[in-house]
Request: fold
Amino acid sequence: MAVETKTTCPYCGTGCGVIARREGDGQVSVKGDPDHPANFGRLCSKGSALGETIDLEGRLLHPEIGGRQASWEEALDLVAERFGAAVAEHGPDAVAFYVSGQCLTEDYYVANKLMKGFIGSANIDTNSRLCMSSSVAGHRRAFGSDTVPGTYEDLELADLVVLTGSNLAWCHPVLYQRLAAAKAARPDMKVVVIDPRRTMTCEIADLHLPIRADGDVALFMGLLAHLARSPALDRAYIAAHTRGFHAALAEAEALDDATLQALTGLTPAEIETFFRLFAGTTKVVTCYSQGVNQSTSGTDKVNAILNCHLATGRIGRPGMGPFSLTGQPNAMGGREVGGLANMLAAHMVLEDPEHRGRVRRFWKAPVIADRPGLKAVDLFRAAADGRIKALWIMATNPVVSLPEADLVRAALSTCPFVVVSDMSGTTDTAREADVLLPSLGWGEKDGTVTNSERRISRQRAFLTAPGEARADWWQMAEVARRLGHGAAFAYQGPSEIFAEHAALSAFENDGSRDFDIGAFADMSNEAYEELPSFLWPRPANRQGKERFFADGRFYHGDGKARFVAVSAQPAERRTADFPLTLNTGRIRDQWHTMTRTGKSARLSAHIAEPFCEIHPRDAAALGIEDAQLVTVTSPLGRVILRALVTVRQAEGALFAPMHWNDAYAAKARIGALIPGLTDPHSGQPATKNVAARAAPFAAAAYGFAVLAQKPGDLDCAYWALGKAEAGWRLEFALEEAPANWADWCRAAFGLDPSLEPIGYLDATGGDVRLAFFAGERLVAAVYLARGPVAVARGFALAQLGQSHGDLKARLGVIAGRPDAGRVDAGAIVCSCFSVGINQITAAIRQGAQSVEAIGACLNAGTNCGSCRAEIKGILHACHAAAAE
Ligand SMILES: Nc1nc2c(c(=O)[nH]1)N[C@H]1C(S)=C(S)[C@@H](COP(=O)(O)OP(=O)(O)OC[C@H]3O[C@@H](n4cnc5c(=O)[nH]c(N)nc54)[C@H](O)[C@@H]3O)O[C@H]1N2
Ligand SMILES: Nc1nc2c(c(=O)[nH]1)N[C@H]1C(S)=C(S)[C@@H](COP(=O)(O)OP(=O)(O)OC[C@H]3O[C@@H](n4cnc5c(=O)[nH]c(N)nc54)[C@H](O)[C@@H]3O)O[C@H]1N2
Ligand code: SF4
Ligand SMILES: [Mo]
Reply:
């Protein structure tokens, strides 16, 4: 019998409600929860494909010590013994936890409690340091607390939505769809996108400001000065509810127009249009994400934005306010439990002795950390230079995602004892572990997450735990017990942890702290099971509220908000040797280091390779052609990527995705190129403005292969592997062509040495095509050329699942394209219905002139809708081409 479970998507901070349906035969399908207020039934491409990512391939199913399977008892004893010994010998600061915004609140709470209250160090940091810490620091400077004032509804109610440093269409797709729907219903609504690249998000923009890297502080300072000269300035609000306006304004006014233009790279007309629009619209929401946070001026960028909202009193009211878009599903929950090295639980302040005393009393803790711990980049440097003797990494893959990624890898081999808790035992980080602990993943674990609008939702289990995998909180509670803290960690389940967390949030609070969910302090396990999603705050004896700061009351001691007098500094990193700016970020269908989305063939079809976007003029100057392989080099390292020549990219700048890693590509771990430069206030690394250079990669042969079996270790200068419906897809290149391609293929792909391929060889052009069959089944088709391989990828991939009884069918594989009269789909745009760009352009040529019309004839864009921005982009491109 089928069972339906209401849960929450484990990917982005939009926090969509999901209904998972498990059939009697174990098959799982997912759909959006129509009753969930984050998504009202919508899901994006990643959410819709969740059912394809929960298989057990690559899963870590048993604890391992030094690569051998071990029992939980043995592994946990060892972890406790080594952490205990390190603390006894070198003090509490010799150990550290590095956790994640993908931990559930309950896991996070236990990790933070154990480290800060029982081990007695604040050496617990999280990948949220790379993600949200500049927003946290900015909020705390301005508001006296880390508070997101508004809700998603504000984006729909606004007359102007400014998106700065956010590729909403790809990174918060359902929120983007809500915004797009609101704009369609109210065409007067304006959207401004501020981003050095012309991203897919720009498809709904009325104005795109292609800002120079890190020009944001200058832009929003200029805006503040403009607002001060306009009727938009709310002097009464400033006087009643804020401090520091004049100092901030003085700095802003000192910025002259020429400097403003130089730092932002924008024309006077672009700047003027934006300033007028902002000043002239009362209902304005400014959303920001990693283009703001991941910078050496990230915190100042946040405050430059907040200054403009405070100056106009446009905060905490319907359709108005600054809005920090959180990335991970539980970035916010991590902040609520105080899981950063410089925070305390329940939004209390580590530096405040009264707060420390309060948390210690509540926890009945033997100690409490009394100074901030090491922030992520410094934490791994400390591991590298021997200061950290035992490190526990949980739900994050720092060998890929941290800057100085090679140093991080070296740090893990230097550090005497590294524990990794993950679902996968084969990540780049897991490979460096001394002890591997198998964790429950989405669908198996139980707890809560908080999304960008402060909405707490349940993640519920609907699958049985595979192998010996156990919840992260349980692993830590067991270690705590072995360290002698059994009584404080005697939880029977996540509901008890959540209730304790709720009780702490209300403990001696009385409205003095924003985070209060005291209404749930006595919650039973049954109530927790049924818990519908809710927005915090939810105090026990008072009314909750939708928005913060509507009353003009902030959390600094005097109740007033602070303007921060920021100043604009140039952030020019380029040098003669490294004359380009490397920007890094996300693509639509992959999640971070691909440990889960990489399992889905549909998601891997959208963009199947690590790439580097480059402007046509830069490409021409460097002798780089579209689809050629290129090296991208920084002072720290070098990667090999596929060139994507596009005017969406600004001149002088490159963009590369953060996703690919050593499990999916030869040399594409972009973190290895990024220096550990951080924001002085937040410690957040600057992953979007890196000096680099690019050059063509000298490949003697390019190859594309479809393979029935996953190949083992590949000995190619370049390779990128992706999941396909019936096997694997592989792009590769060699610096030297082998003497015999058939031999090479058999060895490289682990094929039966007795298999003889059919194929052809074009000696002059250099094209070679080989297909290996086992009976009627295709086991490998390999297409080789001296330059980028021109073969219909989708067609070749489809051959894997088909039988090839006759010679004609086999020769068709070699031809590498569909029969005459049939269109090859081309690169997949709509992953729900596998509709490619060639089909969409054909439909446009036949008269489909809108996203809806294309949907009507091809279904593209009619399910999850994540590709609608791209379809719009293709329509624009076709129209532009037709007009030329
Ligand atoms: N598909 C997908 N979605 C995701 C994720 C994923 O891995 N895949 N990850 C989630 C997570 S954890 C996060 S943090 C979010 C991130 O979500 P976003 O922040 O929207 O994503 P990014 O691609 O990192 O960066 C956003 C944009 O900032 C721009 N940018 C770079 N430098 C500057 C600058 O100096 N100023 C301005 N104004 N813009 C700049 C980049 O060009 C880029 O388009 O996405 C979440 N959603
Ligand atoms: N160059 C560059 N680098 C970046 C960024 C960028 O824009 N550019 N963005 C940064 C940002 S914003 C972020 S958030 C980080 C993300 O970077 P990471 O956190 O390193 O990336 P993930 O792939 O999400 O890693 C999550 C890991 O946890 C495992 N996992 C999943 N669920 C569970 C669970 O329930 N329990 C346990 N124990 N393990 C689990 C997964 O298998 C995976 O190995 O990357 C940062 N790095
Ligand atoms: S927008 Fe997509 S990835 Fe984000 S929570 Fe919703 S379904 Fe998941
Ligand atoms: Mo993130």
About this structure: Residues 3-52 form a domain with the Phosphorylase Kinase; domain 1 fold (CATH 3.30.200.210). The mean pLDDT is 95. Residues 100-102, 127, 130-131, 290, 294, 327-328, 394-398, 400-401, 421-424, 427, 439, 441, 445, 472, 584-585, 592-593, 595, 658, 670-671, 674, 687 surround MGD (ligand 2) (CB under 6 Å). The first strand starts at residue 3 and ends at 8.
